[in-house]
Amino acid sequence: RTVTELPSLIPLCFPLMKVHAVGDIIILFFITARKYSFSTWITSFLKPVQQDKATLVLARRLCQKMSKYIYIRDTEYGFIPAEIIEKHSVGEKVTSVTASTRAPKTWEESTHCFEGTEYSFEDNSSVTVKVPKSGVDSLPFQNISDSGDVIAEADMANLGYLHEAAVLFNLKERHYKSLPYTRVNDIMVSSNPFFRIDNLYGIENLTKYANTLIWDGNNETVDVMQVDPHLYEISCGAYKEVVTTGLDQSILVSGESGSGKTYSAKILMENLANFRDLASSQGSSLSGSEITSKILQSSTILEAFGNAQTLRNENSSRFSKFVQLEFNIRKDNFVNGIISPELLGASTTVYVLEKSRVTQRNKDERNYHIFHQLLAAENDFKVSQWNHLKDTDLTSFKYCGKCKKPVVNEKPDSEHFKDTLESLSTLGLSDEEQKTLFRAVCAILQLGNIIFGEDSGNSDQAAVTSQEELIKLSEIAGISLEEINEALTSKTVTTRNESFKVPLKLNQAEANRDTLAQDLFSNVFNYMVDNINNSTESKSETKNSDMPREESGIGHVNLLDIYGFESYKENGFDQLCINYANEKIQFKYVLDNFEAILKDYATEGIVLQNLPEVEEPEVLRFIEGKGGLITLLGDQCISRTPSARAFVQMMKKTHKAAECLVAKKIDYPDQFGIVHFADTCNYRAAHFITM
Question: For residues 446 and 666, what is the distance between their CA atoms, to the nearest angstrom?
Answer without folding.
Answer: 37
